[in-house]
Amino acid sequence: MTAAPVLFIHGLWLHASSWDPWVEYFTSEGYTASAPGWPGDPATVDEARADPDAIADHGIDDVVAHFAQVIAALPTKPILIGHSFGGMIAQRLLGEDLALAAVAIDAAQIKGVLPLPLSALKATLPVFKNPANKHRAVSLTAEQFRYAFGNAIEPAESDELFEKWAIPAPGKPLFEAAAANFNPHSPAKVATDNAARGPLLLIMGGRDNTVPEAVTRATLKQYRHSDAVTDILEFEDRAHSLTIDHGWRDVADASLAWLRKNGF
Fold first, then answer.
1. Could you tell me which CATH number the domain at 6-261 has?
2. What is the pTM of this model?
3. What's the rounded Cα separation, in Å, for the pair 13 and 178?
4. pLDDT tens digits, residue range 88-109?
5. Residue ranges of domains in the chain
6. By the 8 A CB rule, do 106 and 201 touch?
7. Cα 101 vs. chain centroid, distance in angstroms?
């Protein structure tokens, strides 16, 4: 049987090319793997840094619609693997029956998730400190990246990852997620009660400042009314960089093992 296609979905502040090692690895394991960018994403990191306006003002619904179009062009429903806001997008698409299965890694909070740890507020402060950033693209400094992504690795590795893959990010998805529990039609709402959807694996880093484990555990509780497979896995000593740092292969292997256990 031919393996299902795999789509990797990046989150804020990382370019789609940050998935390149995963794409290569999953391809070597027999999958047709790709990592499309978000709407407005240029082809390279340098282009994204040079033209942040191209990325600005894209919200959650824009990204979901963009990936729904990508999926519609595929021969079969894909497996989705998303990181951070990419993990939220993957959950929405899975809940809308557009995917066979999904792995959501350190996924941004969906509607209904109440914990808002102080570390998450600090990690996203570069966006929230100015309300006008809702319609702008915002860059992190290397120091801010170390707090939000690289706090569990050596500073030198964090700085290297920042130089290699960090890009400006639209502020709009963060503002939408922050207001989700006050908006009955929030784009951060996921069909968590869909019992017919495919399996979902939530992965969390125990030292993640941006999406602390309390957020992921609260996300799991949102699925309590669905009988569909919903699993959770923690990497205790990992932070938000767990998909791109020197230990990425451990996370990829765990994702692959879970997919195969579930028949993919």
1. 3.40.50.1820
2. 0.96
3. 18
4. 999 999 999 999 999 999 999 9
5. 6-261
6. no
7. 15
